[in-house]
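Notes for week 9. Today we move from apo structures to complexes. The key idea is that a small molecule is not decoration. When we ask for a structure prediction with zinc ion present, the ligand SMILES becomes part of the input, just like the chain. The input block below holds both the sequence and the ligand string. Read it once before you look at the output, and try to guess where the molecule might sit.
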Amino acid sequence: MKARFLFTWCIFIRRKNYNTSPGCADKIVILGSGGGRHHIRTQYRATGGILFHFNNIQAHIDPGPGAIVRINQFNEDPTKTELFISTHFHLDHFNDLCTMIEASREKLHDKNYVYKKKGTLITTQEVLNFIPQYHLNMLEKIIPFTSNSRIKYNGVEIVGTKIEHSHTNGFGVRFNLSEYSIAFSSDTTVFDGFEENFHGVDILFLNLLRPNDIICKRHMNTDQVIPYLNKINPQPKALIINHFGAYMDSPLSKKNYVPSQVIKIKRETQIRSVIAGEDGLNIKISELLNKV
Ligand SMILES: [Zn+2]
Ligand SMILES: [Zn+2]
């Protein structure tokens, strides 16, 4: 119902030649489809995180190594970022955070050397302990966040989702907008109740490090996650798989397993729109919501 409303509204806006509807302009830009140490080192798949544009706000989620390079490479504007989110204290999720905070403004200070404050940072206390006070002082607002957190940001509800991942505390993040809901799983393995984070979500962005049944204690593989995807009620309209590890696609893997994982998920779930992340991929939210 929400999707139909958004579609109609987008058509109306297009006919009227307006470009002011937040939902119509919302998009995701993948600044990195790789995850883990191999891709950090080789950049075979980039590790710059994700830009999420919603309600005329630009958020940068998990700016890993090379984020500043990728945002320029893919013709996005770092000065437009006003919301920074780092989901946990691993390099591929926070390494370029200070760079992106500094790059989010054209001028650092006025002629009297008063530093301009801009932007909101949502992250774990562990990441905050690592960020220099110099960069923290550049921000308007700092929000320590956990998997139990729930805040309102410019009218949008942002909710932490549970992860089980390594020794570090962290969170996934879900945005409940008036027109749709989207969740970014962050790094996690599956666990009892994993699906409960995502009931009612329209778009799910899943960090799927490994293909088929290749086990990693800290991450999920395709065979592990499919039963949990089937328990999400209702099924998401679209699933984006991303943050692929070395076993999924790299010179160390036998082949690029990504296309076969898309086919498998489509075959074994009711989710009809399954999209594989690629470096620089630009996805309009309205198109995800209208695909059946
Ligand atoms: Zn990661
Ligand atoms: Zn991690």
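The chain has a mean pLDDT of 92.
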